[in-house]
Amino acid sequence: MVGMSPWSPWWATASSSATVQDVIRNVLKRSVDEAFSAAALFASGVVTVAPPQRYVRTLRGLYAYGPLGLMIGAGAQLHGDSPAIIDEQGSCTFAELDERSNALANAWLADGFTPGQSIGILCRNHRWLFEALLAAAKVGARTLLLNTDFSGPQLRDVCAREEVVLLVHDEEFAATVEGFTPTLGRCLAWTDTRPSAPTLDEVIAAGDPSAPRKPGTHQRLVLLTSGTTGVPKGAPRDLGMSLIAPGGFLSKIPFRAGRTAFVAVPAFHSWGLLSAAMALAVGDTMIVRRRFDPAATLDAVAEHRCDVLTMVPVMLARVLDLGEEELWLRDTSSLRIIALAGSPLAPELAVRARHAFGDVLYNLYGSTEVSFATVATPDDLREAPGCVGRPPVGVTVKIFDEHGTPVPRGEVGRIFVGNSFQFSGYTGGGGKEIVEGLMSTGDLGHFDKHGRMFVDGRDDDMIVSGGENVFPGEVEDLLSGHKGVADVAVFGIDDEKFGQRLKAAVVKRKGQTVTEKQLKDYVKANLAAYKVPREIQFVDELPRTATGKILKRELV
Fold it and tell me: How far is CA 80 from the centre of its chain?
């Protein structure tokens, strides 16, 4: 990765060939970004007027344990007995979360864990996942968040590559982790029986609840890429000490302190982790469930009067597919924010959501490697329903052609992002392409005349059919708006005559009848003839990752 370490001075953002003017410009821009970010944090309620000694303790916690360790320590001071997490087992307060993660950290240190070693976490969303994550921060661990859909061989390969010495997992994954024995053992998080293996509760009960000694190194998170195009890669990230990452997020998606947020996205995913961290950071009560169920999600929103609901688009589609009658049975008027990320938001879905819930939809675009890049606000989505909005404070986005030259507005090119919270290169080696200090997302997109960005598809999704460039995402967006289509994926396949051709896999909407010819005619009536899929296959469902991304390689 090209970028700065979280401890680097501001002038380190400039390249070795930068002029004095470039350095001054970078310092001034960084200062302005930090100021705007501080204002966003103050508006959210994260930063408040408080006695000086509280801020001294907060800064000590930040220095000792890094951002995640600080987050819950500060939450315990500010919110104490307020619920931090509510799951199927009940509630856990900020103070309890702080003390329990302290005890777990101290127990791990007593068992021989050394700061900087790797801890793997294979858990669904519940309190024990966050206790393990926060304890890992307090021991300065390299923390690997594992996909709950992994097979046994995948898990063993990834854990071996990342040198995991301690594994925390839910009991339901016992068969998956069998055959992998880390040097410091395995520990069970969520259990439904009385297992023989040690549980986190037992380890915590034996640990000292006082603050652990300073580990001397800060936690480093290792997030895994989605693996939609191959084996998941490890993308390490230093969390940094700047206000720009949380401030930039809050400047676009206005979480507010002391509210309630339902985080439906798996926390092993970058979007789930980011939204959970922001909820806890502002002092919200976070509602989590181990598995997503659309009706149960609405029930929880109504019961807990949730202010925020974070999902991926396919989850939102499943909620809306319950139908208007089911939606009207629950009082969801408390929702001020429905925040989406993780996969493309179809324009038709954005329109349906606005009709059902009002102007509360936010659409975040980013990747595991670059973190977040742009955010579409309700105003953006009302004017341009499928856009991904504009960059927040502290983020630069440019679109280049294949030669690294910026393209004019309206033209499609490769999306590159610059910020101070990107990943530091894959653990197996390599990284993303860099142009002008900005990192490739691997996506194609364009800006409209108002400066809103649209993602047109993956860089490697574009096909050339009969000499014409075709972007499958454009055809997907169109077909998703057809009344007979519930879900759709469009992709390229080899063709002897045209080189490549488009194929569509379509899930019919329940109660609707639609034919291949009708869909082809629909595309032909709205797009150029060469964009009409030459083959349409009807399927019962599309293969997806745990976070909703379509696995197109399984459809080819």
Answer: 28
